[in-house]
Write a structure and sequence with these properties.
Blueprint lengths: L4 E3 L8 H6 L4 E16 L4 E18 L4 H11 L11 E10 L4 E9 L1 H10 L1 E2 L10
Parallel strand pairs: 1-5
Antiparallel strand pairs: 1-3, 2-3, 2-4, 2-6, 4-5
């Protein structure tokens, strides 16, 4: 499936990975919200953990068709996601996200992998309001 990506941390505009990975490879970016997840502070980057009624703010990024396969592979590497490996830092999952005008779209979201999610639920530090950019 060629879904857009929902990014909520270091891939957002103004953050250090945005230009490294997305510049020149996307057709559009628009604000979005992921519901049913809580955003946790990690060592240097955030993790969305699927739980409860939380909301995570981010951007819905639609890749240029010709850039999609390489971008998908690059983002999987960045997020240290290996399909089927429970030790992955993140899992890439297909979720509904809401646009600023209220539409819902399916998008790839990198959420905390099982081991990381369990640790964060037990003793992690949630980011108030679910917005990585507002932490400053």
């Amino acid at each position: 499936m060629r879904l857009p990506f929902f990014v909520y941390g270091t891939l957002r505009p103004g953050e250090h990975n945005h230009d490294l990975f997305l510049r020149g490879r996307v057709r559009s970016e628009e604000p979005g919200l992921l519901t049913g997840a809580v955003l946790y502070a990690g060592p240097g980057y955030p993790y969305a953990v699927e739980q409860g009624r939380g909301t995570v703010s981010g951007e819905i990024v639609t890749a240029l068709p010709e850039a999609y396969p390489e971008l998908l592979a690059d983002l999987d590497r960045l997020e240290e996601y290996v399909p089927g490996d429970p030790r992955s830092l993140y899992e890439r999952v297909d979720r509904e996200v809401t646009t600023a005008d209220g539409r819902t779209v399916r998008a790839w979201v990198y959420v905390a992998g099982p081991v990381v999610a369990a640790r964060l639920r037990a003793d992690g530090r949630p980011i108030e309001g679910g917005d990585w950019l507002a932490r400053r």
